[in-house]
Amino acid sequence: INRILQRPQNINTYYLEAVGRGNLREVKALFAIVRTDRRMDLKRNCVDQNERSALRIAVENKDPDMCELLIKNKVHVGDCLFHAIRIGYVPVVELILENRRSVNAIIQDDNPYFSSGTTPMLLAACMDNYEIIKLLFKSGHRELQPANNPLCYFNDVQQGDRFHTAFESATKVQLGCSGKSSPSYITLLYTDPMQYCIEHIKDLRRQANVEYEYADFYKQLELQTEDFLCSLLDQIRSSEELADLFEYRYKSCDQKDCTSICLPSNNYRKAICKMQLLDDANSNRLVKFVTHHYSQLALAYMRYRNTPFLNDSSYARNSMMRCFLGILFPVLSVLYLISPYTKCGSLIVSPVVSFDCHMASDVAFVFIIVSNLITKDVDRHYLGMLFKNKQNRWCVISSEPTTLEWIALLWILGKWVQEFEELYHRGWKSYFRDHWNHTDLVALLLMSVAIIFRGLDYNKRATYEALYTVNATVPVPSPFEPRMIADGLFAWAYVFVFLRLLSLTRANRNLGPLQVTLSRMMGDVMRFLLIFFLVMIAFALGLSELYWVYGTPKGKIILCSFGSNQTVDQTCKKSTILFSGLWPSLKTLFWALFGHVDLTQLSLSNQHGFTEAIGRLLLAIYHAIAIIVILNMLIAMMSRSYQITSENEEREWKFHRTEMWIRYIRKEAIRPSPMNLIPHPHMVLKKLRLFIQIIL
């Protein structure tokens, strides 16, 4: 060694070369000579032309013996722990952590290999190295970023800046999201990895909405996390583990088995059949997790656990029995009120029977509406209908709402109670997330307001009768008479009531995918209408500006005057100008899509030939854009929606029907309308006892 060092060579260069060659004896000799001869200017922490220290060279060479020797001689570790984690060499990482725990290690300055703010745990999580994360965890590393460290620039995803415009800031957030999406990190640090994954996916989606430039990156992390969720489900090995995971097998009250039914309280619903994990996954649209075969197996068990006789092999027998039980929903509801603990009384609590009863109730409500429309008679059932009495004077028929209308009112009140029950048990976020609840609310609001106007019209009957019989005249009704408004609201309400029946098709394997496709297409139509409205209003503004003057009385005189004496053609004067204003122009352009426009009405006299030519040109361009381009774009969008559903038909159907069945499994509304208007005797007694205790 002394002979070599006498050559014109830097001792530090020789030191780095010896470490690079892995010559342990020479490096030991160098350290020994330096300890005895202080004239030797050996710098243990020197670097080569690539800014690599001796320890880093040993780490990259995966030489644990050399690393151990250097660390024992108090070589500066620097970022060598990070490089060991980067290459995934576990023995070197373990060696460094044994000598120096480096709990507060962090990349603070500019580093060509690592971003500022990177911690060992964060880097190991991004590399998804289970062994290294485990070593770091044992050494005291817990979080992806050190707590209370002012030099840490990494912001947590949930508390970070909502507008990451700088490249450095966005890079740090992406690095943190990658670490938090690591399966190894999730497995080691969280006792409930599934719930964490669901919350993390929500954070990733929020971050993707903020940093939409990196939406694809966050989408990949979201898919990675959901795949990890499914891999956790694959680890289930028994029915007991499946029941523990989805929390549906509980013993409560004084029951000895899970098939018995307790009082219908909110706590009972949550204790017996939570299904909270599946509900959270469904509300966050985790399609792979929800449609996983184990998730569907748990759902199937919960559907038929109290009624296994409805799940036999005979499809015809099952259908007939379910129809029969659905028709008996009034009887089953009464039995549940009288004796909820018996087999007959608890039958309506079963998810399948409850669904059939609610479906039968909805069909009965539709049947009542249809029957009322068919059996109405104008002379007896239209309030305010006039007739001449024997004195040849006009009178008003004092008819009241029909019997079917009174029955329908009970159904409407029961529907309101049912919606409030669902809102109470599900919470307003989960309730309004279901689009079919929007349909229910719109229908109920329309019918409720229509009933109010019917009541106002009925109360004005005495005034009408006195007016008609005294004056013996037929008054001209106002276009906003209460009865007319009520009929208009009922007309729209019936549309939504019938559309609500489409939601029941989600349970059917053949009709369910078609209903999903229809929902997607409705979304396409709404987006299309936004674009189409902008195009239509653009042309409506142009055409109304061109023709508005001809819609005024003086403008018609100018248009219809001809000859030297300016004779006015009365037929021309009475003609309709299609584009006399913005609103008439919008209506004309809309019906023009269906061919309901007479082009002869665009003809003007010879004095206005230029205006007519411009108007016809605008209308032709509108047809070209609206029909050839925009309508075909709508067809393409709807075809794409159908293709998406057809390619994943089974998965889409399973996902959407799960949301429906969870509602019945969690017993959010047991009795259908109008039977839910009858108060539960047990609840009445409970409230009565509480009232007596308060008084006494």
TrEMBL record:
InterPro entries: Ankyrin_rpt (IPR002110), Ankyrin_rpt-contain_sf (IPR036770), Ion_trans_dom (IPR005821), TRP_dom (IPR013555), TRPC_channel (IPR002153). It is a multi-pass membrane protein. The keyword Transmembrane applies. The chain crosses the membrane at residues 323-342, 348-374, 436-456, 489-508, 528-550, 614-635. GO terms for cellular component: cation channel complex; plasma membrane. Keywords: ANK repeat, Ion channel, Ion transport, Membrane, Repeat, Transmembrane, Transmembrane helix, Transport. One of its GO terms (molecular function) is inositol 1,4,5 trisphosphate binding. GO terms for biological process: regulation of cytosolic calcium ion concentration. Signal peptide: none annotated. Coiled coil: none annotated. It is found in: Membrane. Residues 152-215 form the Transient receptor ion channel domain. It catalyses: Ca(2+)(in) = Ca(2+)(out). It comes from the Eukaryota. It holds the Pfam family Ank_2. ANK repeats lie at residues 116-140. Its main location: membrane. PANTHER family: TRANSIENT RECEPTOR POTENTIAL CHANNEL, TRANSIENT RECEPTOR POTENTIAL-GAMMA PROTEIN. This is Transient receptor ion channel domain-containing protein. It comes from Ciona savignyi (Pacific transparent sea squirt).
